[in-house]
Design goal:
The chain has 477 residues and is α/β, with parallel strands linked by helices. 53% of the residues lie in helices and 8% in strands. A seven-stranded mixed beta sheet has the order 3-2-1-4-5-6-7, sandwiched between helices. Strands 8-9 form a two-stranded antiparallel sheet. Strand 2 (30-33), helix 2 and strand 3 (53-55) form a beta-alpha-beta unit.
């Protein structure tokens, strides 16, 4: 077994197992290790069928199994668990070895680990991996970040196991430092918003239009043939059609309306606030999941908060308007996510190529969609356009769908249906098209109660005014 593995994988949950099989089926010799030997034994017994995969039952044995320099991929839980594995692995590593973290780690943790291992001469890559369990086996979208030298050590291996689009393997170097995990975090934030948009139009069709799950699935399938062609649209139709084996009815209608989250969407919202980048639609999707958890409160408030039940009189173009509205959510979500990537790359010196990011997202990942080709063209026309809204073609796609989105929001309000992703998408576009916003009054008030100063539109400088009348809150001297 000594020096038999070209790559080692630590962590044999579903993703780790499938990546091990993917590497092995592409011709690479793989050594695997899991904290509990029972899982390693079960994997070797139940899933390995002649692939060049070697099990190890201690970290020392695992390290001996690998060729030098070692290439090790961690597929363990993000956070303290990843730190514990790295610490336990360190005694068996040598200068020149490479450790890769393929979990959903926070980009700041990745940068900290990178610096700590560099002091020992060990390379480190933070690798975003999207595609779920099936993608891990058949070809995921892979987003590595770290030093170019470290990426060069595994570029051939990663591009070999990645998904492929007509533009090549869906794996590319994302940039320095924590760029790989930052890109994956933004990917997930866009995923949150896309899913929230889908959920909102589903809610409208079910609650306001009274459509069955089967009929709604047919609508999503029809939309998937057009500009909304995307994995998540296709998945929504598939989920809506699935029948509960116990009741025979749509399983989705038996699922509790409480959406979980792993934290990447929240991290993106926090990072956007820290960098001063407006991402209201991405943030609204996180808040919507949080709101869903207050099931008991919602039931209690709803019982005492009646709303007119409108289920008739909808105009014939309502479904077409819903399709346009969901397209708007998707476009605006990508716009906000790409703006966040642009500013983070500048602030943290990542060197992210957003056109290349969009290429990597073309296949294998959860947010793969027909729009990505168009968005990549827009980015390549002006790589320094932070949010795409300076581009006439992108503006045209957004502007053409605004009236439909507005009509849907009016109807949704009448029916008492919340649409936070759609409403924030519309407000974002309307705000970005206004040359003058009412922030002048906010700044005047800030100066009046706190002497925070202000700028003027008619001359340069910073000003403060002793405003006449009461400027303190009541009771404050």
């Amino acid at each position: 077994m000594r020096n038999s593995g070209e790559i080692g994988i630590i962590g044999l949950a579903a993703m780790g197992q499938n990546l091990a099989l993917n590497f092995a089926r592409k011709g690479f010799r793989v050594c695997v290790y899991n904290r509990t030997s029972e899982r390693t034994e079960a994997f070797m017994r139940d899933r390995v069928r002649g692939e060049p995969i070697v099990p190890a039952y201690t970290l020392e044995e695992f390290a001996r199994c690998l060729e030098r320099p070692r290439r090790i991929l961690l597929m363990v839980q993000a956070g303290p668990a990843a730190d514990q594995v790295i610490e336990a692995l360190l005694p068996f590593l040598e200068p020149g070895d490479l450790v890769m973290d393929g979990g959903n780690s926070h980009y700041a943790d990745t940068e900290r680990r990178m610096q700590a291992l560099a002091a020992r001469g060990v390379h480190f890559l933070g690798i975003g991996i999207s595609g779920g369990e099936k993608g891990a086996l058949l070809g995921p979208s892979i987003m590595p970040g770290g030093s170019p030298e470290a990426y060069a050590m595994v570029e051939g291996m990663l591009t070999r196991i990645a998904a492929r689009s007509e533009e090549g393997p869906c794996c590319a170097y994302m940039g320095r430092g924590g760029a790989g995990h930052y890109v994956k975090m933004v990917h997930n934030a866009i995923e949150y918003a896309f899913m929230q948009g889908i959920a909102e139009v589903y809610d409208f069709m079910k609650t306001a239009l009274g459509m069955s799950s089967e009929t709604i699935a047919e609508v999503f399938e029809r939309w998937n043939e057009g500009t909304l062609n995307a994995f998540l649209t296709e998945l929504a139709a598939r989920v809506l059609r699935y029948r509960d084996p116990e009741t025979g009815g749509p399983l989705v209608e038996r699922i509790l309306d409480k959406a979980e989250q792993k934290g990447t969407g929240r991290w993106a919202a926090q990072s956007a606030l820290e960098l001063g980048v407006p991402t209201p639609t991405l943030t609204a999707a996180v808040i919507a999941r949080t709101l869903s958890h207050f099931k008991g409160d919602r039931e209690r408030i709803g019982a005492a908060f009646p709303w007119p039940d409108r289920r008739a009189g909808f105009p014939p173009e309502t479904l077409a308007d819903l399709e346009a509205a969901l397209n708007l959510v998707v476009l605006v979500s990508f716009s906000q996510g790409l703006w966040l990537l642009h500013e983070a790359s500048r602030a943290y010196d990542y060197g992210v190529d957003r056109a290349e990011v969009l290429r990597v997202w073309r296949a294998g990942c959860i947010i793969r969609a027909r729009w990505l080709g168009f968005l990549r063209e827009v980015i390549r026309e002006d790589p320094e356009d932070p949010h795409l809204l300076f581009n006439a073609r992108f503006r045209g796609e957004v502007q053409g769908r605004l009236p439909a989105a507005g009509r849907i929001l009016d109807l949704a309000f009448e029916a008492g249906i919340p649409m936070p992703a759609l409403s924030t998408a519309v407000d974002y576009v309307l705000s970005m098209r206004r040359s003058r916003l009412p922030a002048n009054l906010i700044q005047a008030q800030r100066d009046a109660f706190g002497a925070h100063t202000y700028e003027r539109i008619d001359r340069p400088g910073v000003f403060h005014t002793e405003w006449e009348g009461e400027t303190h809150p009541p009771g404050v001297g």
